[in-house]
DNA sequence: GTCTATATATTGATAGAC
DNA sequence: GTCTATCAATATATAGAC
């Protein structure tokens, strides 16, 4: 599945991407990247004048990967626009599960670690967040008739990102899927209450009628 | 307000606490801590065998500070238990505002930066999260009659932490209070919908009747 | 408990041949 | 574009006098 690029530049980006994700930016040494990517120092600095430039390339790649690598596999599997959103959340659950809650959201990690000190990186992190929110926003627009008209779609999309990031953080810290699942349960309940009232407060919960993606406990 | 302890050990902890908060753990050098605390290398290593031991002391201090420094000023100002929760969130908003969205939650920062590699630190971070959740849980218990009986209070308290951490992350990354305020607005809406139905789906929104803390935009 | 001096490893980055 | 050798700075940590 995951093939190593013969292209040196791409191999450096891919390697840095993985190490930054698993260890963080500061904790990852240039020497470690070089060793793992099987590249020599001279080559790295031929492509990237500084370590930060490599970071920026990683963040650019995340932007490019958002649709083809993250969203498309889910979008193609799930039709219902609201279930798309929860399918996206389930993707982060799978990542947590597969890595014993060691890997979280790479953008969130870097946002808190280096968002303040590196201005260009911060902007790219913000771009990545925006792309994610926009994708959710489109889902909400596609479910327009099921949401109360006075609900701000962009704000709700931002809320979904907020919940995902906070949930991943807690899951990693507790080393358990429970905080993540709990958060998704609460968000689902909120969506149920939102979609239940086409007119405000009157209809019964529609929870039982809706399809659910599989989120079996570990 | 903030006085510098004459006690060397405490001065080191306070200084490290601030630098870890503003720059992160890895980005903060021991030399920088020594200079700012006006302490010599020998003294630091007399108290703390390694830099990580200093980190652990910082995290222990956060645990001790939770009630007296973070909660008590808010608890004493606000009576209503649900407004206490939103008052707590407003505390993080103030921190963001005062620091131009540079300072977030120190526990959240460290959770994502070093939660994976340092086992003891991770446990202390989890302890800190637990203390925070428990405090919110107590508020929810105190508002027991206003919440539907089938709502899991512990889960909802965890959700509040999730939202706070995710909201702070986005605010710092966007360098704007808007994502934070948006998240709080959504969470408020959720609480309104929860507290509106003592019996499920039937009562009108109680939003207009409730006191609100001041969350004027910047 | 605190001081100064210093050890040792690693950091990000560079030079210059090929 | 890639190679090896290496730089200068900084990292955490230690030694031993006071």
Total count of domains of chain A: 2
Largest interface: A-B, 55 and 55 residues
- Tally of alpha and pi helices of chain A: 9
Give a count of the beta strands of chain A, DSSP E runs of length 2 or more. Answer: 0
Tell me the span between the first and last alpha carbons of chain A: 25 Å
Gross morphology of chain A is elongated
Low-confidence stretches of chain A: 198-211
For this structure, what is the CATH class of the largest domain in chain A?
Answer: Mainly Alpha
Order of helices and strands of chain A: HHHHHHHHH
The average pLDDT value of chain A, as a whole number, equals 92
Rg from alpha-carbon coordinates of chain A = 19 Å
Helix content of chain A: 55-70%
| CATH architecture identity of the largest domain in chain A | Orthogonal Bundle
Task: Write the CATH homologous superfamily of the largest domain in chain A.
Answer: Tetracycline Repressor, domain 2
- Report the major sheet of chain A: none
Overall structural class of chain A, as computed from helix and strand content, comes to: mainly alpha
Oligomer: homodimer
Descriptive overview:
The structure is a homodimer of 218-residue chains. Chain A has 218 residues and is mostly helical. Chain A has two domains: 1-59, Orthogonal Bundle (Arc Repressor Mutant, subunit A), CATH 1.10.10.60; 80-209, Tetracycline Repressor, domain 2 (Orthogonal Bundle), CATH 1.10.357.10. Helices cover 68% and strands 0% of the residues of chain A. In chain A, helix 1 (8-23) crosses helix 2 (30-37), helix 4 runs parallel beside helix 7 and helix 7 packs across helix 8. The radius of gyration of chain A is 19 Å and the shape is elongated. The model of chain A is unreliable at 198-211 (pLDDT under 50). Chain A binds a DNA duplex (18 and 18 nucleotides) through helix 3.
């Amino acid at each position: 599945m995951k093939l190593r690029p013969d292209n040196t530049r791409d191999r450096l980006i891919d390697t840095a991407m993985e190490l930054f994700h698993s260890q963080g930016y500061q904790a990852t040494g240039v020497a470690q990247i070089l060793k793992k990517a099987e590249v020599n120092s001279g080559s790295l600095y031929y492509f990237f004048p500084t370590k930060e430039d490599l970071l920026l390339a990683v963040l650019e790649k995340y932007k490019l990967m958002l649709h083809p690598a993250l969203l498309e596999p889910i979008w193609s599997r799930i039709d219902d626009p609201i279930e798309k959103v929860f399918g996206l959340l389930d993707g982060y659950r799978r990542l947590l599960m597969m890595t014993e809650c060691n890997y979280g959201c790479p953008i969130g990690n870097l946002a808190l670690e280096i968002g303040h000190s590196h201005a260009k990186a911060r902007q790219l992190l913000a771009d990545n967040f925006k792309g994610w929110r926009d994708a959710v926003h489109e889902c909400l627009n596609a479910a327009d008739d099921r949401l109360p008209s006075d609900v701000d779609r962009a704000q709700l999309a931002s809320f979904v990102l907020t919940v995902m990031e906070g949930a991943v953080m807690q899951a990693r810290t507790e080393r358990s899927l429970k905080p993540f699942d709990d958060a998704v349960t609460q968000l689902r309940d909120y969506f149920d209450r939102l979609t239940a009232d086409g007119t405000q407060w009157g209809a019964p919960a529609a929870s039982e009628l809706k399809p659910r993606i599989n989120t079996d406990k570990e």
